[in-house]
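Pilot study result, target chain (901 residues):
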Amino acid sequence: MNRREFLKRGGVAASLPLTLQALSSGCATSGSSLVPTRQAGHLSWLEGDEPAAKAGTTWGQPWAEGELSVNDSLCLNTEDGRQVPLQSWPTAYWPDGSIKWTAHAVPAGVALGKQFQVTKGRNAAPEWPVRVTSGADAIEVDTGRLKVSVPTSGDYLIGSMTRGYAMVARNARLVGLVQDQVDPSEPVSRVETFQSRTDRVTIEQEGPVRAVVKIEGKHKAESGKEWLPFTVRLYFYSGAESLRISHTFIYDLDDQKDFIRGLGLRFDVLQRDELYDRHVRFVGENDGLWAESPKGITGLRQDPGKAVRDAQLAGRKTPPLSEWNPRVSGLLHYVPVWNDFTLSQLNANGFTIKKRTQSGHAWINADQGRRASGVAYVGGASGGVLFGMRDFWQLHPVQVDIRNAGRDVSQATLWFWSPEAPPMDVRFYHDGMGQETYEQQLDALKITYEDYEPGFDTAYGVARTTDFVLCVLSSTPSRTETVNWAKEISKPAQVVAAPEDYLKSGVFGALWSLPDRSSTRKKQIEDRLAWQVEHYCRQVDQHHWYGFWDYGDVMHTYDVDRHVWRYDIGGYAWDNSELSPDLWLWYSFLRSGDPDTFRLAEAMTRHTRDVDIYHLGRFRGLGTRHNVQHWGCSAKQLRISTAAYRRFYYFLTGDDRTADVLDEVIDAGEALRRVDPTRKLPNREPVPGPDRLQVGTDWGSVAANWLTAWERTGDDQYRDRLVSAMRTIGRHPDGFFAGTYGFDADTKKLLAPPEGDIEVSHLSSVFGLVEINAELIQLLDVPEYKAAWLRYCRLYNASDEQKVAAVGRAFGTHLEAPHSRLTAYAAAQEGDATLAKRAWQEFQLPQEFARQWTGDFQAILEVKPPQVLNPVVEAPWLSTNDASQWGLAAIQNLALIADEL
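Predicted structure:
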């Protein structure tokens, strides 16, 4: 419908069309001056400015084929001529054995400036090299400022944390609560506590700049039952007074009778200061800080003296009692000691702070705010622990507890599922509504777009990762230092290369170009690309796409009548990587260097690699199609778990959790034996071999998994798997038009189906096959495979007459505009200008994916109450399918055939 019809139908009398400039929400875009300057040949900070709190940093960097050998050493040089100690390791290799990607780490506390370089050369040694010592019962790690003991077994992740000669904290462990009922109207008969138990400890890196200790285990309940397997990594940097903790658990409970009531990280803090020299601090929003002492000395009826008050407020040791006003020092025992403090954030838009003197007495409300950073401090003037959680309010319900602040040993707990929130409920949201047979399920699919099947609606095997930081300090940090640490913990500093350098290196198939607004047409496309990222930044916040299981994902389709995304309608709700938003965002970042694009893609990857993929159980290695709940759809498929969507984040950051998931899916094709993705389709033609593998979505995913494994390890078994499968497809007369091949999960072989059975799906190319094929053709010389792919690229959007002449029938096509990039690829590979012009015509077709391609934003509206609960900006014609596939087509067409535009 047109805009007038939309206004009439929606009753949005107060809604007005908006210009692109009026839509600005503070997101930096590729066309915005907010994007930091990135100099070719140099590295820079993602957000532009160097972080004030320098905790040690890790990042990834690409290299052109043949540029860097395994024998080359690397060094880091700043713009002012200093050399900074650097630890480097390869994360991917080119086919010739040269290094494709490296990861790098720099020490804590070292200034790099805004621009710096990694070059070949002799590396500088760190002033305080990280030292790792293995003992019979524990691993000791010394950063030069902080010593940490990691037990090799038992109940504690960390035994002790020492600064200088003083132990400051000890006994870090994972804790939790589970109960047998979630309905508040039903009585709870069982509430059980559980705690982490270490099974295995591995030293993954030993320094000298960075060390990593990996801890694996399960949580053990009071009853003796073990559940929720976890992986924890402890990260140590040279000279650091902090350590970073990455924690992942896999859900393996009975969702009908085991309801998690709390999950947290707890540790003890040793208190040595007088009560009035101890401090508790919570960081709120926009540099806001709540700072008090367990024994406050301000606001009393008698004044202890300005020097005393100023010292406590600043977090310094107060003057000796002999220098206090005696009318205060002699009556201090009447001033209450506040032992317990809690900050709880149960939703994305509100937190509360409360405190009490001790158990058995009332809590007193202290303050409230909107979005807490999740960073706190407990300790005294002679030392304590500043600690926090990344993405705190975004991953609500969350909570920070400080207990016994007035006693010799205090406890701090970072709850990543708050015990004050309703218990975690991952049961499926409906009872099946009578969908017992495949016929009924396919019939229901026609109305709600939900692919339901009993037993497939389970969260068993999904995961979630939470990152923490513990800073072991020798004194109470100043207010500014506390806030600076909060900024680093809530949004860790990231180093990136310039877009020119990503492109020049040839990684990821080089299917993009740098933004170019040199002509009217190019500017229209560039403006639309930039707007799309800004629009989704805005949608995340306006529609509150936050929460423990949800943060990072976006919704699939919009409801123009309710002015909301279809959060409650079957397959139209959470997107779960449908039609490759991950790829669109990562390619967008590579070409623009835009920090908001990176952060949007980062949150998506951190979500989809954990929540949308099964990590154990029947569906291990598969992902789940879009649904009201991330695990709700019965379509468990390789196209969601594919490495194609996560490898960007791994190579750009060196993230170890993402590496774990890339390892998990290497042989995910074996899951096709356990779960046939086409089991509900009638009249399927038989294929050779035990398993069915669709040549589009399945093969593209398997190829991405094997390609990534080959890159990361250099192991030729993965290259051989790829070449064998590519030859099978390339030598088949129907090639990619054969549709479904046989697959032997044991031998990893593709098996050719009979000739002449043409099968074409509009989904084959929109889950990463285009992008992965570009890399396969770039890296492997299999001429028959390239020819088969170029044939498919030319014919998909061709005329009916051309299709009949080529394959014998005029198969229908869909998503013509997104598939224009296939036409463009063939045109670029073959130097065919006529085909290039056809590609631009396809891109501009007045289909749903090409709508508004010219950058005419008149159909963007601001909708205000009472039509909606909260004001929203909406593009009613846009879905995530639209944005993702239009964005990829625009980016790749500009890279491949811009001269023909």
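One observation from the pilot: The chain is about 25% helix and 25% strand. A full batch analysis is planned for the follow-on phase.
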